[in-house]
Amino acid sequence: MKPAAVRRAYMREAFLLLALAWLAVHLVSAARVRALASRPPRRISRFAAGRETGRVTDAVDRIAAKRWMPATCLSRALAAQVMLRRRGVPSRLCLGVARADDALAAHAWIEIAQGATVGADEAQRYTRIAEFG
Question: What CA–CA distances, in Å, run from 39 to 17, 42, 105?
Fold first, then answer.
């Protein structure tokens, strides 16, 4: 496939999975969402992690940046984790909290075994409280 066609395919998949993740966060019980995030990939592709991580991150970030897509960090992390799992890249969904002006703030991000992270640009200021996967 040509690079433009591959990029469009990733964008379509990210759109679908972001919409499904948003619905799951709002309509499905937390236990089922946790079970979804904890499933390992069916197969593990040792060499696809670097290339696939960049493509998945780009697609999810581009679709989530649209004004009409109500994507929170949790729905973005769930969509990215499912996309990575489909490609055989094992990952962990991490949840963290931080104090922000007398209130608690929460954040979700993805960590990959090779040390790469998806959505972790703000993760350093959060204290990890849970991880799934």
Answer: 16, 9, 26
Specify which residues 104 forms β-bridges with. 99
Give the model confidence (pLDDT) of 5-36 as tens digits: 999 999 999 999 999 999 998 999 989 988 88
CB contact set of 113 (below 8 Å; sequence gap of 6+): 49, 90, 91
Answer whether 34's CB lies under 8 Å from 92's CB: no
In order, the DSSP letters of 8-63 are HHHHHHHHHHHHHHHHHHHHS-HHHHHHHHHPPPSS--TTSHHHHHHHHHHHHHHH
**d(Cα 44, Cα 63) in Å, to the nearest integer?**
26
3 state DSSP class of 92: strand
Q: Is 120 helix (H, G, I), strand (E, B) or coil?
A: coil
Instruction: Report pTM.
Output: 0.87
**Enclosing domain of residue 84:** 3-132
With residues binned 3-state (H G I as helix, E B as strand, rest as coil), the percentages for the chain, rounded to 5, are: 50, 20, 30
Q: How many domains does the chain have?
A: 1
